[in-house]
Write a structure and sequence with these properties.
0% strand, mainly alpha, globular
């Protein structure tokens, strides 16, 4: 996980930051052409714009904390301290990391004569994209291995759909270029992978033993008998 996370940073985040910072024309032209193709239809349909604004909320910091704060509390109360600290640190600092990279790259947001999204912050990488990947990644770390194996594929697919949907809204709303979104995805994914490895926060394989709960039920009456009636019982 550590190597995969570092690879995403070195092979995706860093090259994109350099290309955007150096204003590499082929990438800038591609970015602009995609935004110009997707943004006008959203501006022409208010209902569609409202749907986009609703979906893009999943990438905001307040929504991330709304979802992850109860999970962190559960982790601490259930004795999963490493997971709890992972949730707090990863969710709390991804915005700082993204903002720092924005300052280094110093890219302006897409401009339009009649924009439907206005912001004076910088563009690269997308904070919504890194935020939603961090949210989904942390939820998968916390709960995926606690699910029955047959449900895990659907859970991962659902997470990927949400991530891609938020990234697409940022482009269609005219808030970011495609390279901003891709860099945000890679930054957030690498962030979760690296910190999960450093905190060693993945649930252990004992969580996956299907007979564990049944064995626990068999042991409980014996333990209760020892407590109430003494060793002879």
């Amino acid at each position: 996980m550590l190597l995969l996370g570092l690879s995403l940073w070195l092979l995706v985040v860093l090259p994109l930051a350099l290309l955007v910072g150096l204003k590499w024309e082929p990438l800038l032209r591609l970015d602009r052409s995609v935004v110009d193709a997707l943004h006008p239809p959203a501006a022409e349909h208010p209902a569609f714009e409202g749907l986009l604004n609703l979906v893009t909320t999943a990438g905001t910091s307040w929504f991330r904390w709304l979802v992850l704060a109860p999970v962190a509390i559960w982790a601490f109360r259930s004795g999963r301290l490493r997971l709890g600290w992972l949730l707090v640190v990863a969710a709390g600092l991804i915005g700082v990391v993204t903002s720092g990279l924005k300052l280094l790259v110093d890219r302006d947001r897409p401009d339009f004569p009649d924009p439907i999204f206005v912001s004076d912050s910088l563009s690269h990488p997308s904070g919504h994209s890194s935020g939603v990947v961090t949210l989904v990644g942390l939820l998968l770390v916390a709960f995926l291995r606690l699910q029955p194996p047959r449900h895990r594929v659907a859970t991962v697919v659902g997470g990927l759909v949400l991530v891609l949907a938020v990234g697409l809204t940022r482009i269609v709303l005219g808030a970011h270029y495609p390279s901003d979104v891709v860099a945000g995805f890679a930054l957030g994914a690498g962030w979760v992978l690296v910190l999960t490895a450093l905190f060693d926060a993945l649930p252990g394989p004992v969580q996956e033993q299907p007979d564990g709960e049944r064995l626990l039920r068999k042991q409980l009456p014996t333990e209760r008998g020892l407590d109430e009636h003494g060793p002879a019982t």
